[in-house]
Each structure stands twice: as structure tokens, then as C-alpha cells.
Design goal:
The complex is a heterodimer of chains A (about 725) and B (about 375).
Chain A: H1 6-14, E1 21-25, E2 46-47, E3 50-51, H2 52-62, E4 67-72, H3 76-85, E5 96-101, H4 109-119, E6 126-130, E7 133-135, H5 139-152, E8 156-164, E9 176-183, E10 188-196, H6 208-213, E11 217-220, E12 223-231, H7 234-241, H8 248-258, E13 265-271, E14 276-278, H9 282-293, E15 312-315, E16 319-322, E17 328-329, E18 334-335, E19 339-341, E20 346-347, E21 352-354, E22 357-358, E23 363-364, E24 369-371, E25 374-375, E26 380-381, E27 386-388, E28 391-392, E29 397-398, E30 403-404, E31 409-410, E32 415-416, E33 421-422, E34 427-430, H10 442-449, H11 455-458, E35 464-467, H12 483-487, H13 496-511, H14 513-520, H15 531-537, H16 545-571, H17 575-589, H18 593-607, H19 614-632, H20 640-653, H21 660-669, H22 675-683, H23 696-723
Parallel strand pairs in A: 1-4, 1-6, 4-5, 8-13, 16-19, 17-20, 18-21, 19-22, 20-23, 21-24, 22-25, 23-26, 24-27, 25-28, 26-29, 27-30, 28-31, 29-32, 30-33, 31-34
Antiparallel strand pairs in A: 2-3, 6-12, 7-14, 8-12, 9-10, 9-11, 10-13, 15-16, 34-35
Helix pairs in contact in A: 1-5, 4-7, 16-17, 16-18, 17-19, 18-19, 18-20, 19-21, 20-22, 20-23, 21-23, 22-23
Chain B: H1 4-10, H2 13-23, H3 30-47, H4 53-70, H5 75-103, H6 105-108, H7 113-120, H8 135-138, H9 154-175, H10 177-182, H11 185-188, E1 194-198, H12 202-212, E2 218-222, H13 229-239, E3 243-247, H14 252-256, E4 261-265, E5 268-270, E6 275-278, H15 281-290, E7 295-298, E8 304-305, E9 319-320, H16 331-334, E10 341-342, E11 344-347, E12 354-357, E13 360-362, H17 367-374
Parallel strand pairs in B: 1-2, 1-4, 2-3, 4-7, 5-8, 7-12
Antiparallel strand pairs in B: 5-6, 6-11, 9-10, 12-13
Chain lengths: ~725, ~375
């Protein structure tokens, strides 16, 4: 008999042509949960006593997904056995779960998607989620809309699900978020820009054509990115084609939307009803747990539809106690609001539990204080201990009178001795027995080697090692993963000092406002210029870290381009091949076209030998420009005015100042720039060197301008010869 | 020792699917849940193998136990199961009595005072197996052959149609429940009355619409936040040509002095005579009590729940997500304010004047008796007890 409920009907709709497939990326590709994730994958961390993977499965099954591929990288055997042991693998659930193990060399979601492509498992539109999703959203509705849109527009390759929240929200990451530019009518995503919390992202470049082509545009900074993407089959193949795409948002979405080649559309679906969020860091672990306990995820709440299959009784003040009467709460203990206590747990007299989650089979000793703490299964906390705003792994023993201050992460199996004192944001893990043959981990070994005297912190008889605090030496190049930014993702870290500092920076930059307005007059220089490039040109005047970091990225790009051009010159590549290579590089590091132009011009200029013999030099210039000149116009856009300006500035900076005249003449001869371009360049304020500080650079620029002046005079003379006409100069 | 045949029937696929739906709140509403329960039960029984009454009731109880455990707040699921069990036992007892009568007709002819008293007792003889303890020997296997080793399916062959009939009876009752309640509407509503109602109860809607055929009267519908189901109710009533006002919840008390009757729907009616009804019902009922306005509750019999003390349980009010009260986008508030959004109110029996059911009108004080007649005592808690 067919099910008559509305859910059944929806299911039929979703499956009208094929089964609905989903892909879970069950790996975090980062180490934010260390040391809790030593020895087990992040997706098996419990949230409200059910593993993240269970929450994710439940979210997908709610949407009528029938086939789920779980992509696992770290500890794949554990993930596999967890799936096998869970209720999802029972035949009656009607879903098929296939774990897929990728290689260790899979470092980004992009790598995982390339792996999916090579497996060839995706037959139709699919739902792509991360393995740390908690959601009660009807994804099937999004899938339906996506499919309808695909019928009209074949280029709509992806629909991103985003949840409206305020700009400030406990569940919205402060450190890693996105700015969405949406078309108000169609909710097409026109532009995406990733932002970080520290150094705070203040400027977001938006391409002009976005504003030009769409009459109504929403720029939104109040969306929680749930990382639920309804993708069409092309998505993995796009990842395959663009081998440098790593992150789905930062690289793929941004890349597709800014690409002038791909011509693909991405849409957003802003959910008004329902809840969806990711547990992407310890801070969101805290906030998602609180959201679950305050029932935002209803009906996915512990007393109703607990994904782990436990039964909890809901009591006054959002308190949940396991239902099977196995919990022992002593008469004098206090269980305050927003607390969940798992089965077979004992809370001794005088203990105070506030806004905490306690796993199964735990014992909480007399007079223990737990406040905003997350305690996994089988953990014993002895008398008078205090745990605040921390995550304590499973099988942990916290000794008598120990203190665990806010923000601590205590790894599985750790024993903390009597009177241990873990300071704020301390991370400890168990010392490995030498016989254990686990996955080797350089960082872990490093930490083990560098243990000083830690008995004061860990107490007597502890088996733990302390992880270093503060930024590591090889701080990540990726902005999101830098230590200061990571602080905004830590549980219990208000990061008030960071935010205050950011505030101070802000007031600094507002003082610079005067400079900024000068700068914006540069904007008409290049047609593709965006706000970020403008600020980058004035990086020298601003000492902000943001500018420095973008400068660092650019210098890396420049060295790449230089190397690539050197290869091209040395090996005699064709102009077309060299152009393709440059385009790829530009897209990979996402820099402005002007930078590429600068690099090409610089490469040509630097090839010219410095000799006193002008005839030789002239011949050499003619040969070089004839061979490589066309490259300037093949890098993705033709802008001769900019070319001249770039040439001028490069010559002004280098000792080859004298070459400016001959090179300009040669460019003119080879029709790379024509007369009007030179005239146009000549009247721009930049050509005259306005806004530059007096010095060698200004002198160089002035020299270039004078040379240009002479050339124009020549043109004028020629013209008056030819036509004896009047002239506007 | 658990019976494999019973267990396999209890763990039927359809039961699992329905449990998942109940837990995910894909089936909501008392009547929907009751109908779906019957459909699932029909599937289970049609496939099940059983050779005596204990196995049969074990299967039904087991299914009921699992469903109730999965979603204890949809009371109609358990009630439906209890009702089916009651029907099945009745039918079985009738059949076995007939069998017994054939065998020992002589014993029955004797009339004595003791015999008379025992027969006069309510349903005492139908409580099985207390009176028919030595069952296997006692039963004459003419129409009902239990535990027949030659033909183990013979009992099922006889009983299956009986169970199916019972299920069909209850289904029919559910299908016609609105009509039967609406039948008496004319007697409850007088001309030119002003009726206040709250929420969108299908029963109340049918009741008021039926009354509109005979009387002209006015209905005031409260908006019923945060679900605002009062809006759809007001639309439905005014579409039927009833003069309807939609008022904010805050004005219920102010308007009560003009209201002549309060008509409410119910989610579940407890054995105390109290009930669970949509949030705001308690407010309306209390206001009505202050003004001595009669409170009439329209509900199908399937909402009678043999539970007494649910109102002690905090969670019984079924707390939903806070988003309809406080938007999730209010980021600054979400962290600081705890919002509770109970779906139901518990309305105590002294606030209700009469229950209008498809089985006649009853005061709250006699609900317990109706419940005792409708269900068997042993089914108050449903679970499969393996012996």
C-alpha cells in the first residue's frame, strides 16, 4: 500500500526520474578539533550524544535521499564500522550507504570531488554535504527547484542552501564566512567572496558587470552557509578540469562566478524555515549543541528523534535526562537549564551541572562543577573538580580538585592527576604507548618530543601531553587557518582583544579616508580594476596586514609568472601557449589582469640587453617585440593605454629607463599600441606621475612622460605634414 | 522467552517506516496518525503467522508498544491499538464461548443468584484469560483450534478475517467521525449565539458548519499564535457563509463577556476528563470560566486516552522549535533568551463543561467510565511482554 502522507508524495516527486543521491564529505580537511580527533575522525565526534555522521544521515534521510556515498579519508575503517553498526545499515531504512575511501593525498574537498569523478558514481543531480551537518531543512524541496531550473537553464549547475541569520549570531562563524551577491528576483548567486574574521575583511570586490547587468542586487552578509549544495553532474567534472580548485566556496564558487570562460550559473536557496548548520569548529560545536538543546532543530531533538536512537525525557528548562531510569541524580545535585545527561550516568551529591552535555556511563563526583562543558562517554570526573566551557573526550579521568578552565580540549583516554590545573585554551592528549601502530602524524610526534615539565599542569600520575598554545612556526599560508583567525573558532574564546584590535585598525583606516579618495581617482586607469586592486596599489601607504598578505600572494604570483615567461623565452614556446599558461596562472591566484600585463611587459623589458651600442639594442628590441609583443594583447584583454602606462612605470623603476623611448616606438611600429592610445595615456594623471612622492620613481615617470611628449610632437609634425590640419594639442 | 513469529511480525517493515515518519513528524494530527496506524496494522496482521490468541494480541500490542514509544505524544496511535485489541478479544471470546457452549451446554442452564450477579457485572466475563485459565484443555477445537500441531495456521485462518473486520470497523468509525459529531450540532447551538473558538480543528469546523445549516449565529475566531491556524479556520468558516470575526489572542478575555459559548477542539482527552488542546485553549477556557461561559469540546472517541497523570510530565505539552516565536535571524537575542513554544495546553477537567463526541455527549467526570468500556485494562500500557 502506498504511503498516503505528504512526505510520501514529495518522495515520489524527487525520484521521478532517478534515485536521489547524496555525497557526504566525511572529512574536515583541517585540524581544528585536535587533539579530540587524534585516533578518530571528526565525523564520529558526538554532538548531544549522537555522532555527527548520524546527524548528517538523519538530515539527508529527512530529505528523501536514497543513496548516500560517504567519502572518508582519515580513519576510514572506523567510519565504515560505525556505518555498519548504525541503524542506517538495517534493510528497513530503505537507504543505501556506500563508504568510499580516498587516498591520504586528498587534502581538500576539491581533491575528494575529483576522486568522486574518477569513481564515476554520480549519475544525476546530487546533494553534496559535509559530514558535520545538523539540519532539519527539507532539502528535497531545494532539489525539486534545482531540477526545475535545470530544465530551463542547462548552465545552472549548483544550488547552495543558505540560512538567514543576523550578521551577529552564535551559530554564524565569525572567522570564516561568505559575502553573497544575489539577484533579488531569481536568487542567482552573482558573486561570492570569502571573508575572514581576523584580520577582518573590510573590503569586498564586486565586479562591475554584476552591477551593470542586474537591475536589482542584494549584497548579503547575514547568511549562514550550511554547505548543503545541490549539484548537477557537471560539478565533479569541473573540479577535474580545474585541478587547482580546493575549497568548494573559496575556489570553486568564486572561480566559476568570476570566470569569463566557464559561463555557468550558481543559485542560492535562502531558507526561511528550518535549521541548518555545520559543526566546523569547536565554537560551532558549542553553539550547535545549544541550538539542539533549545530545540531549534525540532523535530530533531533528543526527546523526539534522536539520531543515535537514544530516548530522553524532556524536563523543565530544556533539560534532557535519559529515559530508561538508569541515570542516578543524587538528591542534592543541581541540574540547571540546557543540560543533557546520557544513560547510566551518575551525578553525585553537591554537583552542579549547567548548560552541559554529559555522555553515557559517566560519573560526576561530589561537588563537581560543570558549566557549559561537553563530556563524552565513559568519563569520570572526581570530587571537587571544575570544568568550564571545555570539551572532554571519552574515557577521560579528571582527578580530584582538578580545574579545567574555559576553552580546553581534553583528548580521549587522558588521565588528569589530583589538583591538575589546565589553564584556558589548553589542549591535552594521551601519551601514546610505543607499541601502538597508529597513523603516523608528524605534528603529534613533534608535540611528544617537546614536552617539558608538565606535572604542575597535569597533576601527578597523568598520562597526558600538553599541546603548544599560540601560533605554530609554520603558520598556514591560507588566511582562514591562521592562528588569530582560528581563535575566533575556539570554544569559549570571546577573542575580545582581537576584536578590539580590529576595531582600532578600523579607526586608523578611517583616518586614512583622505588617501582613499585620492586613490579612487586612479580607478579609471584600468577597466577591470576592482576595489581590492586599488587598495593593493596603495599597499605601501597602508600598513594593514590585509594589504601585506595580498602583497605576499601577489609576489608569489609574480615569481610564478616570471618563471613561466622565462621558460617560454628560453624554450621558444608559441605566443598562444604562453598566453594560455598565463591565463591559468591568473585564475589560480586570482589576481588582476593588470598584474599579468605588468609581468609580461617587465619580462620583455628585462630581456633587452643593456649595451651602449644603440644599433644592436634597437635590433634586439625589434626582434623581441616582434616575437613577444603580441603576447601583451593575448593575456585576456586588450588595453593598450594600460600597456603604455605599465611600460612607463616599469622602466621608471628599473635601470632600463632609457629603453622606454625605443620600446614605445617599437610597440607603435608593431601596432601593439597606436597613436590615439599614446595620446590618451599621455593625458592621464598617472602618466604625469601625480600622487607619487618625489624620488627616483617620480623622476623616472616624468622622464617617460617627456619621452611620450616628444613622440606626440613627432606625430603632430607628421600629421601637419600630411594634412596641414589643425591640432587639438 | 520471546516468540520468533511474534517478533518478526512486530519488526515488520511497515512498522519501521511508520516509526520513522512519526519521529520525523511527517505524520501529524490525531486522525491522520490513527488512520495510518490502522493501515500499518492491517499490513502487519495480513502477513503475520500466529496460532493462538496470545500470539495475536502479542503482535498487536508489540506493534502498538513500538509506535507509542517512538512518538508518545500522538495519543491516538495507542488508542487505536487498544481499541483493536478490545475488538479482537471480544470477537474471540464470543467465538470461544460459542464453542464452549456447544461442548457443555448443560452447565449453562443452571440459574442461581451468584450466577446472575456475575453475569450482571460489566464485561467481567470478557476479560480474558483470567476466567479461562486452563485454556488449551478448556477449548473445544470446533470453530477455534489453537496451537493445532497438524494445522498451525487454522487459528489464523479463522481469526484473520475477524481482525480485518475489526480494523475495518475502526476505520469506518474514523471516516465518519466528523459527521457523527456534527449531527448533534443543532442541539448545542442556539440561534444568534456568539461562539468563540481557537485554532483550526477539523472537528470543530465540521461541527460549526453543520450547525450553520439550521441556525444563524456568529463565530469569533482567535488568531491562535504562534501557529496562526485561526486564520485558516476563519477563512473556512466564512467561506461556508458563517458570520466570522478574526480577533487577536490578546482580546479573548475582553470579548468573553459577549461570548455565549466556547467551542474547542482537543488533541487528547485523558481519563481525568482533562485534555490536551492547542496552545491558547487554556487561556480561552480560563477566561470562559471567569465569565461562566460554557465550554464545549468537540472530539472523536479515538482521542480518549486511558492515562491519568500526563499533566505531571512537563514534556507532554510537546515543545516545538522556537522559530515561530523568535526568529532565528535575531542573532543577538537567540543567545540570551530561552524561548519555549509548547504545542499544547493542558486544560483541567473543571474548565470543561461537556465533551461532544461521536458517541454522545459526556461531562468530564464520566470520561473515565467511557474509557473503561472502550479499552481493556491490561492494555493501558502497551508493550510486548515475552514470557
Amino acid at each position: 500500500m502506498p504511503p498516503k502522507s505528504s512526505a510520501g508524495k514529495d518522495k515520489d516527486l524527487a525520484t521521478e526520474d532517478d534515485v536521489l543521491q547524496a555525497v557526504i564529505l566525511a572529512d574536515s580537511f583541517n585540524t581544528r578539533f585536535r587533539p579530540l580527533t587524534l585516533g578518530k575522525p571528526r565525523c564520529l565526534l558526538p554532538v548531544c550524544n549522537a555522532t555527527l555522521l548520524d546527524w548528517t544521515f538523519e538530515s539527508l534521510v529527512l530529505a528523501g535521499v536514497q543513496e548516500i556515498f560517504v567519502i572518508c579519508r582519515s580513519y576510514p575503517e572506523q567510519v565504515k564500522s560505525a556505518i555498519r553498526a548504525s541503524k542506517w545499515s538495517e534493510p528497513t531504512t530503505g537507504i543505501k550507504i556506500v563508504p568510499i575511501i580516498t587516498s591520504k593525498e586528498c587534502f581538500t574537498p576539491g581533491d575528494a570531488l575529483r576522486d568522486i569523478y574518477t569513481h564515476g558514481i554520480i549519475k544525476t543531480d546530487f546533494v553534496l554535504v559535509m559530514g558535520d551537518l545538523v539540519s532539519n531543512v527539507r532539502i528535497d524541496e531545494v532539489v525539486r527547484i534545482h531540477k526545475e531550473r535545470r530544465k530551463v537553464n542547462k548552465d545552472a549547475i549548483m544550488t547552495m542552501v543558505v540560512k538567514e541569520s543576523g550578521a551577529v549570531h552564535r551559530t554564524r562563524s565569525r572567522a570564516d564566512y561568505g559575502i553573497f551577491v544575489l539577484d533579488s528576483q531569481t536568487s542567482q548567486c552573482l558573486h561570492y567572496e570569502a571573508a575572514v574574521g581576523y584580520p577582518p575583511t573590510r573590503r569586498v570586490p564586486i565586479p562591475r558587470d554584476v552591477l551593470a547587468e542586474h537591475p536589482e542586487v542584494e549584497i548579503r552578509n547575514d547568511l549562514i552557509d550550511c554547505c548543503i549544495d545541490v549539484c548537477s553532474v557537471e560539478v565533479p567534472s569541473l573540479f577535474q578540469d580545474n585541478f587547482d580548485y580546493g575549497d568548494i566556496r573559496r575556489d570553486f564558487v568564486h572561480g566559476v562566478l568570476t570566470s569569463d570562460l566557464l559561463m555557468k550559473d550558481i543559485y542560492c536557496y535562502v531558507i526561511k524555515e528550518g535549521y541548518a548548520s555545520r559543526v566546523s569548529d569547536t565554537r560551532s560545536y558549542d553553539s550547535v549543541s545549544k541550538d539542539i538543546l533549545s530545540r531549534w532543530t525540532f523535530p530533531l531533538v533528543p526527546d523526539d528523534n534522536h539520531p543515535g536512537g537514544h530516548a530522553y525525557e524532556y524536563l523543565r528548562g530544556n533539560t534532557y535526562i535519559a529515559k530508561d531510569n538508569s541515570v542516578v541524580l543524587s538528591r542534592t545535585c543541581r541540574v540547571n537549564a540546557n543540560t543533557l545527561i546520557g544513560a547510566h550516568t551518575t551525578v553525585a551529591p553537591g554537583a552542579v551541572v549547567t548548560a552541559s552535555v554529559i555522555g553515557q556511563r559517566c560519573t560526576i563526583g561530589p561537588n563537581v562543577t560543570l558549566s557549559h562543558a561537553y563530556v563524552f562517554d565513559d568519563t569520570h570526573i572526581e570530587a571537587d573538580a571544575v570544568v568550564e566551557q571545555s570539551i572532554v573526550g571519552s574515557g577521560v579521568r579528571i582527578g580530584e580538585g582538578a580545574r579545567v578552565e574555559r576553552g580546553c580540549l581534553v583528548g580521549d583516554g587522558v588521565t588528569l592527576g589530583k589538583g591538575a590545573r589546565l589553564g584556558a585554551f589548553e589542549r591535552v592528549s594521551r601519551r601514546r604507548a610505543s607499541s601502538e601502530d597508529e597513523e603516523s602524524d608528524e605534528e603529534w610526534e613533534e608535540v611528544e618530543k617537546n614536552q617539558g615539565d608538565t606535572s604542575a599542569i597535569l597533576g601527578p600520575g597523568s598520562n597526558a601531553i600538553v599541546w603548544p598554545k599560540g601560533p605554530s612556526e609554520d603558520d598556514d599560508e591560507l588566511e582562514v587557518e591562521r592562528f588569530d583567525n582560528q581563535r575566533l573558532m575556539r570554544i569559549g574564546d570571546a577573542a575580545a582583544d582581537l576584536l578590539a584590535q580590529a576595531e582600532a585598525d578600523e579607526s586608523d583606516s578611517s583616518e586614512d579616508e583622505g588617501d582613499e579618495s585620492d586613490v579612487s581617482s586612479f580607478a579609471p586607469l584600468s577597466r577591470t580594476s576592482s576595489f581590492s586592486s586599488v587598495s593593493a596599489t596603495t599597499a605601501a601607504t597602508q600598513s594593514s596586514i590585509a594589504a601585506l598578505s595580498s602583497a605576499a600572494a601577489e609576489s608569489e604570483f609574480l615569481s610564478e609568472v616570471t618563471q613561466s615567461l622565462e621558460r617560454a623565452f628560453a624554450e621558444g614556446h608559441s605566443v598562444e601557449n604562453a598566453a594560455v599558461e598565463l591565463k591559468t596562472l591568473r585564475m589560480a591566484s586570482n589576481v588582476d589582469l593588470r598584474r599579468v600585463r605588468e609581468a609580461v611587459v617587465a619580462a620583455i623589458v628585462d630581456r633587452v640587453p643593456l649595451t651602449q651600442d644603440f644599433a644592436v639594442q634597437k635590433r634586439e628590441i625589434a626582434r623581441l617585440v616582434a616575437r613577444w609583443g603580441p603576447l601583451i594583447n593575448q593575456i585576456g584583454g586588450v588595453d593598450p593605454v594600460e600597456t603604455v602606462e605599465v611600460l612607463q612605470y616599469h622602466c621608471a623603476k628599473s635601470p632600463r629607463l632609457q629603453l622606454f623611448g625605443p620600446l614605445l616606438a617599437q610597440l607603435y611600429q608593431d601596432d601593439i599600441v597606436d597613436e590615439d592610445d599614446i595620446r590618451q595615456w599621455h593625458v592621464t594623471p598617472a602618466a604625469r606621475g601625480e600622487g607619487l612622492k618625489p624620488g627616483a620613481l617620480l623622476d623616472g615617470v616624468k622622464y617617460g612622460w617627456v619621452v611620450g611628449q616628444k613622440l606626440i610632437e613627432q606625430f603632430d609634425a607628421q600629421e601637419s605634414d600630411d594634412e596641414s590640419d589643425d591640432d587639438d594639442e | 522467552m520471546s516468540d520468533p513469529a511474534v517478533l518478526s511480525a512486530i519488526n515488520h517493515r511497515a512498522v519501521d517506516a511508520y516509526i520513522a515518519k512519526l519521529r520525523r513528524r511527517q505524520v501529524v494530527g490525531s486522525r491522520e496518525a490513527a488512520l495510518e496506524t490502522l493501515r500499518v496494522l492491517r499490513q502487519v496482521v495480513s502477513k503475520a503467522r500466529f496460532s493462538n490468541i496470545e500470539q495475536l494480541t502479542g503482535i498487536i500490542r508489540g506493534v502498538g508498544g513500538r509506535l507509542v514509544e517512538a512518538q508518545p505524544k500522538e495519543h491516538s496511535v495507542g488508542n487505536t491499538i487498544r481499541k483493536i485489541l478490545h475488538h479482537v478479544r471480544d470477537e474471540y471470546n464470543a467465538a470461544s464461548k460459542a464453542t464452549k457452549a456447544k461442548e457443555s451446554r448443560s452447565e449453562r442452564t443452571e440459574y442461581s443468584l451468584a450466577n446472575f450477579i456475575s453475569q450482571g457485572q460489566i464485561r467481567k466475563d470478557s476479560v480474558w484469560p483470567t476466567l479461562h485459565q486452563p485454556l488449551a484443555e478448556d477449548e473445544a477445537p470446533i470453530t477455534l483450534r489453537e496451537n493445532d500441531s497438524n494445522d498451525p495456521d487454522s487459528f489464523a485462518k479463522v481469526m484473520k478475517p475477524v481482525v480485518m473486520d475489526a480494523i475495518q470497523d475502526v476505520l469506518d468509525e474514523l471516516e465518519t467521525v466528523y459527521d457523527n459529531i456534527a449531527k448533534t450540532a443543532r442541539e448545542h447551538i442556539n440561534p444568534d449565539e456568539i461562539i468563540l473558538t481557537i485554532g483550526h480543528s477539523k472537528t470543530v469546523e465540521a461541527f460549526l458548519k453543520a450547525a450553520a445549516h439550521y441556525r444563524s449565529y456568529t463565530v469569533i475566531v482567535a488568531e491562535t499564535g504562534p501557529s496562526y491556524s485561526g486564520h485558516t479556520m476563519a477563512k473556512a468558516l466564512s467561506a461556508a457563509g458563517i458570520s466570522t470575526f478574526l480577533v487577536p489572542d490578546s482580546s479573548i478575555y475582553a470579548l468573553m463577556s459577549r461570548v455565549t459559548k466556547v467551542v474547542l477542539g482537543a488533541h487528547a482527552i485523558l481519563a481525568t476528563g482533562g485534555m490536551f488542546a492547542i496552545t491558547g485553549s487554556l487561556l480561552a477556557a480560563t477566561a470562559a470560566r471567569t465569565h461562566s461561559t460554557p465550554v464545549v469540546v468537540c472530539a472523536g472517541q479515538f482521542k480518549f486516552t486511558p492515562l491519568w497523570n500526563l499533566y505531571h510530565e512537563y514534556g507532554a505539552l510537546d515543545f516545538a522549535d522556537p522559530s515561530s516565536v523568535l526568529g532565528f535571524e535575531e542573532g543577538a537575542l537567540v543567545d540570551k533568551v530561552e524561548v519555549l513554544n509548547p504545542y499544547y495546553d493542558y486544560v483541567a477537567p473543571d474548565l470543561v463543561d461537556v465533551f461532544v463526541t461521536n458517541d454522545g455527549d459526556h461531562p468530564p467526570s464520566s470520561i473515565y467510565r467511557l474509557i473503561k468500556e472502550t479499552y481493556d485494562d491490561e492494555d493501558t500500557t502497551l508493550e510486548y511482554k515475552s514470557k
